């Protein structure tokens, strides 16, 4: 179980993370979503005791990370797959961790096998690894101590589609056996397939969180008409808050009935009218991304 | 094993999983000194350079002077120059290669990692004295075989002095590494600062007296001989407090507080 309580981190006048609170329960996968620079990594580093928070706190299994005597046996952490000594082989990297944690040396081979790194790959130096192989090694490192909790920052980065599919299966299985998973991503599609709960962060604040289904359901209505311009005017006139999609459709924050009524009153021919589903969450996400990237450009 | 046969393991109380002992962490850090190509070559170079010095002594020394001590003492100097680099790399490598992220994820009490690293490099420094003894012994045998004196002359006081000399060298490097947390910066600072200090004290007469207490190249020199007076120990202690303990203490504080990313 991971509990994050009002975590805040300021760097001078810049607030990277503000008042972030959420929980990850055993048996579930929590997707931590947000655009680049939203504060995902900073939050995860604070959970793992790498970054001291300005205020607030976080516990894993009821204790602050830094007070855990042997955290590798309870929590598997992958914060940055590239953060490995380039001169060590994959196997040596795992062996060092296994010795530190005091786990049996046989676990090294088992972990390598579990993430699909073969003997040749294990003997190569990490400097020669592709990003996908580093992610696999990072996962092996996280799984090495047979933990109850996994904290993974962008683990799908650099993995090929087959690798992403494999990782989903691994995380799902881990959670189904009672484990707790927190994984971050800046791609909604990536976590949508595996997460039970979503925490969406933008500009350092949590903008939405809850069960995945509930979040996807409350995402508004997708509407499309033959005459997109007339539809826009109609929605404006009816004072329905709408955002234009990239493909001529609109996502409206209202019930489909309301939207249909407004269109019927204006005599418009609709080609599509349905609950937005993940499209709505994506829209929310896109607005976040747009805001965040302008902020980043200004900074 | 299929998913169906796996059952959720019972929750483990955190206290049941004991943390790594300092001895175990030191063993891990010792392994880290030698498990990369760069680290391995640094260790090999240290050994080779001690051997080269012995060979040179075989050629340049007059036959009657080719004693065990004459081989042992000169081998300490070049090794003492490389040991600080070992000390620096063992600390800064974690930051430049960013493996600190993994290291501190497994051992969040960072001071334990630092103590283990210091213990590892001290052990390496002591081992280097054994290497110096070994190559000196080989040199003495070779001298005997090639018509030199080959006399087993050795003042046992030299051994603890050599150990202090190398341990001080390696810890000074580690202190610079811990304080600066950046490999090139630490190496340049380590090599440059004492030299600048020596130059300045040679030029400015007011610095001459403090230099006798603070210039490690002066205070450590008596360690290469068998005799050391109380005054010399005192000056050595003061200079090491300034150049070893101070950087180590400040560096420890910095490492404890630093954000790892």
* Assembly context of the chains: heterodimer
Number of structural units classed as domains of chain B: 1
Tell me the fraction of residues in β-strands of chain B, as a range: under 5%
What is the 3D shape of chain A? elongated
- Counting DSSP E segments of at least 2 residues, the number of strands of chain A comes to 13
Q: Helix count of chain B, per DSSP?
A: 10
Instruction: Report, as a whole number of angstroms, the end-to-end distance of chain A.
Output: 35 Å
In the CATH hierarchy, the third-tier topology of the largest domain in chain A is known as: Rossmann fold
The radius of gyration of chain B is 22 Å
Strand order of the largest sheet of chain A: 5-6-7-3-8-9
Helices of chain A, by number, come to 11
Q: What series of H and E elements makes up the topology of chain A?
A: EEEHEEHHHHEHEHEEHEHEEHEH
Question: Which shape of chain B, going by the Cα principal axes?
Answer: globular
Roughly how much helix do the residues of chain A carry, as a percent range?
Answer: 25-40%
Q: For the record, give the distance between the C-alpha atoms at the N and C termini of chain B, rounded to a whole number.
A: 37 Å
What does this structure look like?
The complex is a heterodimer of chains A (299) and B (261). Chain A has 11 helices and 13 strands. Chain A is of the alpha/beta class. Chain A has 2 domains: 2-216, Rossmann fold (3-Layer(aba) Sandwich); 217-298, Alpha-Beta Plaits. In chain A, the strands form 3 sheets. Chain A has a 6-stranded mixed beta sheet with strand order 5-6-7-3-8-9, with helices on both faces. A 4-stranded antiparallel beta sheet of chain A has the order 11-12-10-13, sandwiched between helices. In chain A, strands 2-1-4 form a 3-stranded antiparallel beta sheet, with helices on one face. With 261 residues, chain B is mainly α. Chain B has one domain. Helix content of chain B is 74%, strand content 0%. Chain B has 10 helices and no strands. Chain B has helices spanning 22-34, 37-60, 68-96, 100-106, 110-145, 158-180, 183-203, 208-214, 216-219, 230-257. In chain B, helix 2 (37-60) runs parallel beside helix 5, helix 3 (68-96) runs antiparallel to helix 5 and helix 3 (68-96) runs parallel beside helix 6. Chain B is globular and about 60 Å long. Chain B starts with 21 loop residues before the first helix and ends with a helix. Mean pLDDT of chain B is 90; it is low at 1-11. The chains are: A alpha/beta (299), B mainly alpha (261). The A-B interface holds A 27, 41, 45, 48-52, 61-63, 65-74, 77, 79-80, 82-88, 92-93, 96-97, 99-102, 125, 141, 148, 173, 176-178 and B 3, 6-9, 11-12, 14-15, 17-20, 24-25, 27-28, 31-32, 35-39, 93, 97-109, 257, 259-261.
């Amino acid at each position: 179980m991971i509990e994050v309580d009002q975590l805040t981190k300021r760097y001078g006048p810049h607030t990277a993370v503000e008042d972030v609170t959420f929980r990850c329960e055993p048996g579930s996968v929590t997707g931590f979503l947000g655009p680049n620079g939203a504060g995902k990594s900073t939050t995860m580093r604070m959970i793992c005791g790498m970054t001291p928070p300005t205020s607030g706190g976080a516990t894993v299994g009821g204790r602050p990370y830094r007070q855990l005597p042997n955290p590798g046996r309870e929590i598997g952490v992958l914060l940055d797959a590239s953060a490995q000594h380039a001169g060590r082989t994959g196997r040596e990297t795992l062996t060092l961790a296994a010795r530190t944690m005091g786990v049996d040396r046989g676990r090294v081979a088992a972990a390598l096998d579990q993430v699909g790194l073969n003997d040749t790959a294990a003997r190569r130096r990490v400097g020669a690894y592709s990003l996908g192989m580093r992610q696999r090694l990072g996962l092996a490192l996280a799984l090495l101590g047979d933990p109850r909790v996994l904290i993974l920052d962008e683990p799908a980065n650099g993995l090929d589609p087959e690798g992403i599919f494999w990782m989903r299966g691994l995380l799902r299985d881990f959670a189904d056996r009672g484990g707790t998973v927190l994984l971050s991503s800046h791609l909604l599609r990536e976590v949508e397939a595996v997460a039970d709960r979503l925490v969406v962060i933008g500009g350092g604040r949590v903008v939405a969180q809850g069960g995945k289904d509930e979040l996807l359901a409350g995402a508004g209505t997708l509407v499309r008409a033959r005459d997109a311009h007339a539809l826009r005017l109609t929605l404006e006139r009816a004072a329905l808050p709408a955002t234009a999609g990239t493909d001529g459709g609109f996502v409206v924050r209202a019930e489909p009935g309301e939207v249909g009524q407004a269109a019927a009153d204006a005599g418009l021919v609709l080609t599509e009218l349905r609950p937005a589903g993940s499209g709505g969450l994506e829209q929310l996400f896109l607005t976040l991304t747009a805001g965040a990237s302008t902020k980043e450009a200004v900074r | 094993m299929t998913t169906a046969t796996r059952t959720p393991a019972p929750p483990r109380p955190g206290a049941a999983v004991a943390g790594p002992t300092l001895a175990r962490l030191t063993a891990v850090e010792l392994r880290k000194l030698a498990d990369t190509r760069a680290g391995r070559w640094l260790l090999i170079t240290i050994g080779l350079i001690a051997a080269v010095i012995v060979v040179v002594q075989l050629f340049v020394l007059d036959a009657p002077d080719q004693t065990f001590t004459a081989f042992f003492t000169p081998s300490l100097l070049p090794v003492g120059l490389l040991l600080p680099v070992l000390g620096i790399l063992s600390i800064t490598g974690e930051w430049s290669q960013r493996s600190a992220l993994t290291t501190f994820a497994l051992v969040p009490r960072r001071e334990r990692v630092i103590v283990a690293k210091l213990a590892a490099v001290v052990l390496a420094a002591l081992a280097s004295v054994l290497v110096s003894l070994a190559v000196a012994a080989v040199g003495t045998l070779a001298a005997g075989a090639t018509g030199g004196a080959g006399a087993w002359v050795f003042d046992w006081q030299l051994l603890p002095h050599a150990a202090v000399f190398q341990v001080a060298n390696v810890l000074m490097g580690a202190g610079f590494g811990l304080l600066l947390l950046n490999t090139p910066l630490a190496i340049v600072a380590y090599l440059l600062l004492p030299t600048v200090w020596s130059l300045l004290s040679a030029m400015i007469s007011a610095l001459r007296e403090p230099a006798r207490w603070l210039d490690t190249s002066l205070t450590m020199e008596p360690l290469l001989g068998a005799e050391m007076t109380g005054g010399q120990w005192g000056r050595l202690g003061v200079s090491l407090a300034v150049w070893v303990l101070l950087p180590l203490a400040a560096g420890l504080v910095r490492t404890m507080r630093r954000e790892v990313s």
